[in-house]
Design goal:
With 493 residues, the protein is α+β, with helices and mostly antiparallel strands. The chain is built from 17 helices and 17 strands. It has a seven-stranded antiparallel sheet with strand order 8-9-10-14-13-12-11, sandwiched between helices. Strands 5-6-7-15 form a four-stranded antiparallel sheet. It is globular, with a radius of gyration of 23 Å.
Length: 493
């Protein structure tokens, strides 16, 4: 959890994730979208202004840029190679490699972003180029302008951030962030960007099939993650910022084949160079800066000097901007923080209630380990049945507040209530020196020996689960036997 002192911008990320949880559980819409019926609605100058305005907020939310100057220059160089062969070679585009473990890439006018988490999953320069080409496609096709013209300007994140910070500027910024990279691109826009990316690969003398290969890896990795989290099927596509990977793989592969049939194309992947560049790359969270999960149900953040425990049947996940939890029964929780001059009760009754569209008033004052707090609750009727919503706000120090939000099926709330209360009560200050901090994980690139197998190499990784499957997928292998002596592979250790 990358909660920093920059609370206003971090809060926007939490409420964006909260909205996703509510959509999944309460069957709300991610946003109210309506076609304006008119043209794009934004000039190129207005688009660029939005990109420049949002760039600092994105850096704050995603951990800033990575510190490795050589790797940053390498990623930028790959993008420049594509830009040079595109239809807009003089378009000023800033390429930023974000210090985030989340596997992600996105674009805003004049900006393309990629995370180190995505770099850890790619297996060649050509695959990296495929992702960058896709994001350049969004920029070239002016998809941001299309989304702005279709989107309702209201949003949960915008309202809450503005109220919590008392900043009208913060509210406006959060609203723009919400509509620009919370709302998903349409399938048509995603496919259009895929096709642009594949064509840029071919023009840049990369193997155009590399994009489909990365999408396939991404889909397989997502399946492993969801299985480990106890989710048996993919979430509805409308909850994702991208269409189904399998469908995109088929379309990207078809476009690559069409390009190949039309003329000679390069088979260059530049795998060796890529593996050299990511050797030693930080993998996952920095346990000091971003906290870590212990035994699946305890969150510890040495940098913020706090910890809490979740109920035993709730599996915690540390995301970029919030700690999220889910039980097999369908209960969900999120933990994050924000700054406000209001009392915890006022935050619940005003800000959170307005943001969720559910009144949690009257909030009841509580004390958590000597600190002032409040709790508010309400029941919402959903397509899946009634759901109970509970918000706990604890004033930590100064204007800093920590927030637990729980969503539970109404028929299970009573049986879970003690565990929920105990979890909130477990929020405590810690002394970092007294905490056993796990070692940082990094990507180590090794050469496959003559006696090595996928199983023996997987056993050397620090993955907590599905070691064999994760080793195969993170290395882009078709299966355990798709391994040869002398091949370079990634070990997360």
């Amino acid at each position: 959890m990358s909660i920093r002192v920059v609370w206003p911008r971090q809060s926007a990320a939490f409420w964006r994730q909260l909205r996703k949880a509510l959509v999944a559980t309460v069957a709300l819409s991610v946003a109210s979208c309506a076609s304006t019926g008119g043209p794009l609605g934004l000039s190129r100058e207005q688009e660029k202004a939005i990109g420049e305005q949002q760039h600092p907020a994105i850096l704050a939310e995603f951990g800033g840029e990575i510190e490795d100057a050589a790797l940053k220059a390498y990623v930028d160089g790959v993008a420049r190679r594509l830009i040079a062969v595109g239809d807009q070679p003089n378009e000023p585009i800033v390429v930023t490699t974000l210090d985030s473990p989340v596997v992600n890439a996105f674009a805003l006018p004049g900006h393309v972003y990629i995370t180190r988490g995505l770099l850890s999953l790619a297996n060649s320069e050509a695959e990296l180029a495929g992702v960058l080409g896709h994001e350049l496609g969004h920029v070239y096709a002016r998809h941001t302008a299309e989304r702005v013209s279709r989107s309702n300007m209201t949003g949960i994140g915008a309202v809450l951030v503005g109220i919590l910070t008392g900043s009208q500027e913060g509210m406006q910024l959060a609203g723009q962030l919400g509509q620009l990279y919370l709302l998903k691109y349409s399938r048509g826009q995603e496919y259009e960007s895929d096709l642009i990316g594949v064509r840029l690969l071919a023009k840049g003398n990369y193997d155009p099939t590399a994009q489909a290969d990365f999408l396939n890896t991404l889909g397989r990795w997502t399946d492993i993650e969801m299985k480990a989290a106890g989710v048996n099927s993919r979430p509805p596509e409308f909850l994702s910022t991208h269409p189904n990977s399998a469908d995109r793989v088929r379309r990207a592969a078809a476009e690559a084949n069409a390009i190949a049939q039309a003329g000679a194309v390069s088979s260059d992947r530049s795998r060796a160079k890529y593996m050299e560049m990511i050797d030693g790359l930080l993998y996952g969270d920095d346990p000091v800066k971003q906290g870590f999960i212990r035994n699946g149900s305890e969150f510890i953040h040495p940098g913020m000097k706090l910890a809490f425990n979740a109920p035993k049947d709730v599996k915690l996940t540390n995301t970029t901007s919030a700690v999220v939890g889910r039980s097999q029964s369908g209960a969900q929780m999120q933990f994050t923080g924000g700054a406000s001059q209001q009392t915890p009760a006022q935050i619940i009754e005003n800000d959170i209630s307005k943001s969720l569209g559910v009144s949690l008033a009257p909030a009841r004052n509580i004390t958590v380990n000597g600190r002032q707090g409040a709790v508010g609750a309400a029941r919402a009727n959903t397509q899946s049945g009634p759901v109970d919503v509970q918000a706990f706000v604890i004033r930590w120090e100064g204007t800093t507040n920590y927030i637990f939000l729980w969503l539970t099926p109404a028929n299970l709330t009573a049986s879970m209530q003690k565990g929920i209360n105990d979890s909130v009560a477990s929020l405590r200050a810690i002394e970092p020196k007294s905490v056993s901090i796990p070692p940082v994980q990094r990507i180590n690139v090794v050469s496959v020996g003559t006696r090595d197998t996928a199983a023996t190499l997987a056993a050397k990784t620090s993955f907590e689960n599905a070691k064999d499957d994760r080793f195969v997928v993170i290395n882009g292998l078709l299966g355990p036997t798709d391994l040869r002596a002398g091949q370079s592979v990634k070990l997360v250790q």
